[in-house]
Amino acid sequence: ATVLADRTGTFSASNVSSLMEQYFSTFIPLSKEKNQEKLVKTMGLLAFMHITDMKESSSIHDLTEGMGLAYEDFISSINILEKNELIEIRYECVKVPDQNVASFFIYLAFVKTGHLSLKALLHKFGKRHMNKIHHCIVSVHNSYGHEAVVSKLQPQIRSFYYSCADEDLKADLADKFWYY
Question: Which pTM does this prediction carry?
């Protein structure tokens, strides 16, 4: 509320990117974080998975390696995020506690910085997690503006679609992302 009260000028509820960036910079000044890319990738992957069971190390290795992030960097970034109270860890499960926070993490990782690739996510996890991917992207699309999201993600979705040999996966992708 303080961040919003301090803002002057117009505010669009359909694009909250600058508001969220200003708000989260009070927790983690990403521009000063030396491992910014690793931290942003971790934020995006945690938001995508919603709940990450740390006991399933083979699944986590599969996730992190598939998205170009070393397991050790993922764990280190989780510690930073927990220290700044942006994630919760309970019973060895890591969770992004808030839908708005998760949407921002997805936006930051896949759209704003491009540190994570939607095409790579679709390639690695599309068959098993298409509904989850769709939900994440729709949430970001609704919060961060059509133009910003479409301009970054449409080329990746189309590229994946045209390179995909699995007709069932292509049909599911076309069904979920027809507006892209």
Answer: 0.82
